[in-house]
Specification:
This protein has 364 residues and is an alpha+beta fold. The chain folds into 2 domains: 54-222, P-loop containing nucleotide triphosphate hydrolases (Rossmann fold, 3-Layer(aba) Sandwich), CATH 3.40.50; 237-361, no CATH class. The chain is built from 8 helices and 16 strands. It has helices at residues 38-46, 56-67, 90-94, 115-128, 147-158, 173-185, 235-238, 290-298, and strands spanning 72-78, 98-104, 135-138, 163-166, 204-207, 213-216, 245-251, 255-259, 263-269, 273-279, 285-289, 317-322, 328-332, 336-340, 346-351, 357-361. The strands form 3 sheets. It has a 6-stranded mixed beta sheet, with helices on both faces. Strand 8 (255-259) and strand 9 (263-269) form a beta hairpin. The chain binds guanosine-5'-diphosphate. Guanosine-5'-diphosphate binds at residues 104-105, 107-108, 140-142, 167, 169-175, 193-195, 197, 199-200, 219, 239-241.
């Protein structure tokens, strides 16, 4: 029997027959020590994305398979994009398995906010999604934050069982697994991570001890992520690599802020107020009069990055908020948030239809 060779990046079974199918490696590249499929090779060396072909159905099969095992599930969410991190039907398919939730990208949220506050917020979100975790921890894969704690918690809750890691693409699952790999296998060869959504295809198996394993499941695309709407070259503008930068604008009513060409805030009614905007450093914010707002968008010149599929501002979804008498954040999931204390004020947000927009008690 020939041994199955797997791609070191995505875990797909290597084949040299069909270039269009996953796991393809040309025959003359098969003798390398570390084998990467064509897709991972191009991703790693040229930062070029070939989209994953994993369908929702295939992903559900994997979830159901996990549900058939008595195991610990580690569910990774992006703290900066909770809506974009949701896996539909997760608890239904997992059959009451223990779930340890990891809120990743802690470094993107302001340092001045205490972890406990973010943790409570995350627990409330999970409750609303019907998830009852055995525990919740915050992490940062890029800043190596709480990774030792994550390893301790995995050991604490797995009780000698296997561990399955699940998460949608782009939440930092590969980055976290790489960190775990370093710990568990002391391996120098790490799996692929990239700026692009959708990098993991098949189950990667990491030995934990003599008879249990940690499995990395493929990421599934969550269409609610704003990352899926922008061009590949614009991902670097919207995927934050560090803490969001707050900028305050004193706005009168009838003024508008554009966040690149991706979303817009209209201050409809209220006293002159400070709007503190927490967005990725590279995203340009433009201020204009509300009466100029539509024309500015529809001219397609000034506002970058833009979403090619949305030609007219009226094709965006509109969310209207009447502000309560305490400080709130208006969150545009996966893009940023605006902190406002303006009792009775009226705000309107334009954002792409798939992107979550909501109001929460202010983090800061
Ligand atoms: P996956 O698709 O879930 O496997 O995600 P990746 O590990 O490929 O990460 C997606 C993007 O998020 C990459 O640009 C990573 O550098 C970035 N990323 C991952 N973890 C973190 C984190 O903890 N903080 C920040 N700021 N970025 C992260």
């Amino acid at each position: 029997m020939t041994e199955e060779i797997r791609c070191f990046g995505c875990g797909a079974v290597i084949q040299s027959e069909d270039e269009k199918k996953i796991g393809f490696v040309p025959k003359n590249a098969l003798n390398k020590d570390v084998i990467l499929c064509k897709r991972c090779f191009r991703l790693k060396n040229y930062h070029e994305l070939q989209k994953t072909s994993l369908t929702n159905d295939d992903f559900l099969k994997i979830l159901q398979e996990i549900g058939n095992h008595n195991c610990l599930v580690v569910y990774i969410v992006d703290l900066f994009d909770y809506n974009g991190s949701i896996i539909n039907g997760l608890t239904r398919h997992l059959n009451n398995n223990d779930i340890l939730v990891v809120g990743n990208k802690r470094d993107v949220l302001p340092k001045s906010v205490k972890d406990i506050k973010i943790e409570h917020w995350l627990r409330r979100q999970l409750k609303e999604s019907g998830i009852k975790p055995v525990d919740v921890i915050l992490s940062s894969a890029v800043k190596n934050y709480n990774l030792d704690l994550l390893i301790d918690k995995i050991e604490q809750y797995r009780n000698n069982r296997n561990v399955y890691v699940v998460g949608v693409t782009n939440v930092g699952k590969s980055s976290l697994i790489n960190a775990l790999l370093k710990h568990y296998s002391q391996s120098e060869n790490l799996i692929t991570t990239s700026e692009f959504p959708g990098t993991t295809l098949d189950l990667i198996e990491i030995p934990l001890d003599d008879d249990s394993y940690l499995y990395d499941s493929p990421g599934i695309i969550n269409e609610h992520q704003i990352a899926h709407l922008v061009k590949d070259e614009d991902l670097k503008i919207i995927i934050p690599k560090s803490e969001l930068r707050p900028i305050s604008y004193q706005l009168n009513s009838q003024q508008t802020l554009y966040f690149g060409g991706l979303a817009r805030l209209d201050y409809i009614k209220g006293e002159k107020t400070s709007f503190t905007c927490f967005f990725p450093k590279r995203l340009k914010i433009n201020r204009t009069k509300l009466s100029n707002g539509d024309a500015l968008y529809n001219r397609h010149l000034t506002l970058q990055p833009e979403i090619e599929s949305i030609k007219d501002i009226n094709d965006m979804a509109v969310h209207v908020f009447k502000l309560p008498n305490y400080k709130v954040d208006i969150v545009i999931s996966g893009l940023g948030f605006v902190s406002i204390n303006c009792p009775g004020g009226n705000i309107k947000i334009h954002a792409p239809k798939s992107v979550g927009v909501f109001i929460r008690e202010a983090l800061i």
